[in-house]
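Aim 2, interim progress. The first record below pairs a target sequence with its structure tokens.
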Amino acid sequence: VSGLFLYPPGGYMGWHTNEDMAGQRLYITYALEPNKSFFRYRDHNTGEIITSYDSGWNCRLFETGFGKPLWHCVYSDTFRFSLGFRLDLAAVEEVVK
């Protein structure tokens, strides 16, 4: 588990990279009201800021670290629950073989 958060209305996590804990992340979130909370990040290639709004249950997979820090943040204007996992994909590939 890499994160377990309950955001109340007005709750947020500021911009950060998780660069010290590089790897694949899977986050499962639930927002009580649609389009009132979001995951926002900066695209590595274009520099564009992208906002991904929550609507009920959501699932996001992204990579942090590895020399390309993923700048990202979260904001919520409703109750939002977030459960994150740091994945070891190399270990998963070994099990699947």
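The second target in this work package is listed in the same format:
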Amino acid sequence: MAAIDTVIRVSERTPKLGLAQWALRVPLAAILINQGISKVYGGMLANAEAYGFPVWQYVLATFTDFAAPAALILGGLSWHWTGDVLTRLGGLGIFASTVAVITVIYAGGGWQGWQFQGLIAAGGLFFLLRGNDAPNRI
């Protein structure tokens, strides 16, 4: 419960966004959906083999690229506590998948060029910690 209490304390201290949150939600969702489409294009099995990943990891990454943006957008449309949970799950998915990409692509041969993915990860982390401003948090 200490982790949940910490997330709630951090969430309460972050600024309220109102409609401005959509300026971050929509581009994050669009970028992740585009990444998911690029993973499907050409065949998932062939792409997984080309990158040297097990198929289950590639399928999980592709699923996350579609599920996380859906959760982020649907979470923003609801001010019930379920919207808060969806927003945080979407943020978690975006953060985790993008950190995995940064680790796999850039950790082996230098860190030049990771800024775009770093910004996406920061957006996901923001929604993971901030949530939805739901009045009835868990």
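The chain has six helices and no strands. This observation will shape the mutagenesis plan for the next reporting period.
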